[in-house]
Amino acid sequence: MKTYKSLEEINQELEIYKLQAQIDKEKMKQNYYEIKDSVSPTNIALDVSLSIVRKLLYGRLFQKLLPFRK
Q: Against a cut of 0.70, is the pTM above it?
């Protein structure tokens, strides 16, 4: 446990904690907006579209590399 020698030290420590709390709050806001943007309908649609295109391209690539007989 920390001991303080004056009221000024206590106030200084409290100010530091207050500033750290403000920094943490701003970081949380930034993370919230980043998550909100990444889960937008546009981004979800784009991810699904890219996934479909990849599957189609990989499917064609495998068909050319490993020809199957019918």
A: no
